[in-house]
TrEMBL record:
<dbReference type="InterPro" id="IPR005025">
    <property type="entry name" value="FMN_Rdtase-like_dom"/>
</dbReference>
<dbReference type="InterPro" id="IPR029039">
    <property type="entry name" value="Flavoprotein-like_sf"/>
</dbReference>
<feature type="domain" description="NADPH-dependent FMN reductase-like">
    <location>
        <begin position="30"/>
        <end position="167"/>
    </location>
</feature>
<protein>
    <submittedName>
        <fullName>NAD(P)H-dependent oxidoreductase</fullName>
    </submittedName>
</protein>
<dbReference type="Pfam" id="PF03358">
    <property type="entry name" value="FMN_red"/>
</dbReference>
Amino acid sequence: MWGGRAGTGPRMSESTENLSCFVLNCTLKASPAESSSELLGSQVLSAFADLGVRGAAARVVDHDVRFGVSTDEGDGDAWPALRRQVLDADILVLVTPIWMGQPSSVAKMVLERLDAELSETDDEGRLLTFGKVAGVGVVGNEDGAHHVSAELFQALSDVGFTVPAQGVTYWVGEAMQAVDYKDVSPTPDATAGTTQVLARHAVHLARLLTQAPYPAGD
């Protein structure tokens, strides 16, 4: 977890060499179960680390996140701690498996919790997510990577994140088969390449936004 920056909105660290990334893994599998989403998320973090970006990750299902659309649903809700990590980071990457052609139910719950950011602003009327970059990772052994990324891109943009060009990395296996990404070795060149592009473009955009934040509201 990174301290001292949550709630500052566009006023992020002035150092463009001190960026951070947080990966929210929306697998349905709790730790320590093996997870293709976990593997892709770790590869995403490695790609950012190669660019000098600090990183951290969390499996949402390992935390008692409640259903709701507020920043804190009370009664031991674990979302506020995860939200703090989201707001402390310059770059958020949501990684989700595909189920029945859709983002996981966990990913949809995360989007519902992020909806609360529409009511959270800084002293100049900007959303706290303005100036933050979001990317997506998708894995599955069925079709749907483009549909899933489109759903996540739209929602993340709605709540204030900025999405870079080609801001998704994904792998989909042959439809109606049982091979998972975690069982594929070596990592396919196409997926490794898109992971590198996601990291490069997200870092480029995050650096630009530290230098030129979005304008304040009226």
